[in-house]
Amino acid sequence: MDGARLLDTVISPDGRLVAYLVSTADGNRGRLSTLWVAPADASSPPARLTAGPALTGVPRWAPDSASLVFVSDRQLHRIGLGGGEAEALTSWRGEIAGHLPLAGGQLIAVIATDEPDEQDTRRKAEGDDAIVWGRHVPPDRLRLLDLAQPGLTLVGGLGDRHVVEVAQRPDGGPLAVISWACPQDEPGAFTAVLHVVDVDTGKVRDLDPIGLDARSPAWWHDGRGWHLAHLAVTPPGLVGGTAVFDTAVPADDAVAKHRNLTAGLAVCPAELVQVAGGPPLALFADGLDTAIYRLDPAAQRFRRESARPGRLDMLTASASGKMIAVRASTAYQPKDVYAGPPAGPLVRLSDTRPEVSQIRWGTQERLSYQASDGLELDGLLVLPPGRGRADGPFPLVTWIHGGPYDRWADQFHDNWWAPGQWLAAAGYAVFLPNPRGGSGHGHERAAMVAGAVGTDEWTDILSGIDLLIAEGVADPGRLGIGGWSHGGFMAAWAVGQTDRFAAALMGAGISDWGMQVGVGELGNQEAGLGGSSGWEGPGPHRHDQLSPVSYASKVRTPVLIVHGQDDTNVPLGQSIYFHRALSAFGVENELVIYPREGHGTTERLHQIDLLRRIRAWFTRCLGDSEP
């Protein structure tokens, strides 16, 4: 938990340098962030520019690659490549959510809330703090910072819409802006619109609504005119894979039409990056691995440039598109900075956790197997350090990823939400399955869980467990299951379907899909997963059939339930409900609540406590981990 963590990476426009943020432990609750710069060709060691506990957000390069702009102490700062003291650029009393230096170097686009009204501040201080739902969170607005004069200037034309992301046309022209109707995920995320904003005149053109989870606007030119690409969930449903959509930007106010550039692909786009000198680049989840693709302007389809084992993310590209930087992790190597041409090879620039190379880790195997209906599946198996399959059978813990639109890539699994190596070090074999509904195998497979969570998804996982038992890896009398978020739901679902597990851990999981529609952050999408909302009528409802709490009377497995007190994604009530239901039927369970934590666990002592509890729970319920 005290190990360094690589947060963000960004390559300079000229492709010569890569900046990145590294977070290190600073006491029991805090982390210290350090900004580094390294040559993209690894010709010399990285140089430390600045550090501080309040250094947050993604650093951005100036257009001339001579300085970096970043957020520290809630204000924008600029620092040159020589280091020294950073220059404060703002004294804004609102919250700064993002920034983008614009062509020419004189202007910076800033996404920020309004400064607090003095009268409102005084009222709240006096206790007059009633919340009007829907208006209790201020929107982030688009503003401009002119480096020659103080203050932020509001860009008009977007009204009260909540600005999510911006990208400038490579020729220095207008901004592409993605906005929501309001800051709340529900309904905001379902109301995304793509705009073109002229920063000189303030004129705004709407390019029609775009899909759920819309992000990463990227300009490109096909030789005839400008296009705007972006990522979003594939329609018409709210559950499915992400796709790259493209819009030919009309020269006038004509209606713009979106086109799916990734339809039919058996891989899933994860990130999209604008390239000033050519078509955009993208990262695609490809089974257990990650591939780099480039858009072919003529065919208007993505073509593979290269692929690497494990997980890549945080993709950025130089202006020419000839150099990229990514954050990458493989089976025994934590996340580090890599750079090079999109077609490879990529050179490692950082060594954020050198202590890892001194530890003997459990062997991580790639698995390929079939579901009961013949669907090809993949996953990972982590064996105890120094042990092989011949040393089995082992007590087996199946740990399920969140999402469900996510995956286990063939990367280093060493943290509280993916404790593969932590459990393997205690003598357990750990199964990390990738059932249907996840990313890495195209939209159609991701959409299979719409209105059907826990059904075929569950039998996919069971098929993998049965295979490991048949191969002599897993001891059928010592099986455990756990996971976080959707993985927590799946663990709670599993123990209501079978008594084969001797222990389960439900981390921030959903016990009732109807409740989740009403109080979760993305209620409409949760209804798409659970099959109904509850307000269609008095029932019966599909979500009741798919909710673990409905099967509490059948549970015989001891369950450790863990949740953050301030979780708004999957609210704490989901765990309390399951705890009460299990207790009503005399099922052994323990509910652990971490104060101040949201959907994740961030405080050092909480992370350490969680890891120890996970291992202690499985040790007590599964018995000695030695064969």
Question: Would you write up a description of this structure?
Answer:
- The protein is an alpha+beta fold and 627 residues long.
- 16% of the residues lie in helices and 38% in strands.
- It is built from eleven helices and 36 strands.
- It has an eight-stranded mixed β-sheet, sandwiched between helices. Strands 1-2-3-4 form a four-stranded antiparallel β-sheet, with no helix packed on it.
- The longest helix is centred in the last third of the chain and has 19 residues.
- It is globular, with a radius of gyration of 25 Å.
- It starts with a strand and ends in a 5-residue tail after the last helix.
Lay out the secondary structure.
Blueprint: E1 5-11, E2 17-26, E3 30-39, E4 47-52, E5 55-61, E6 67-72, E7 75-80, E8 87-88, E9 96-101, E10 107-112, H1 118-125, E11 141-146, E12 152-154, E13 162-168, E14 175-180, H2 185-188, E15 193-197, E16 204-209, E17 215-221, E18 226-233, E19 242-248, E20 258-260, E21 268-275, E22 278-286, E23 289-296, E24 301-309, E25 311-317, E26 324-330, E27 333-340, E28 347-348, E29 364-370, E30 376-382, E31 394-400, H3 420-424, E32 429-434, H4 443-446, H5 456-470, E33 474-484, H6 486-497, E34 503-507, H7 513-519, H8 523-530, H9 542-545, E35 559-564, H10 573-584, E36 589-594, H11 604-622
Parallel strand pairs: 31-32, 31-33, 33-34, 34-35, 35-36
Antiparallel strand pairs: 1-2, 2-3, 3-4, 5-6, 6-7, 7-8, 9-10, 10-11, 11-12, 13-14, 14-15, 15-16, 17-18, 18-19, 19-20, 21-22, 22-23, 23-24, 25-26, 26-27, 27-28, 29-30, 30-32
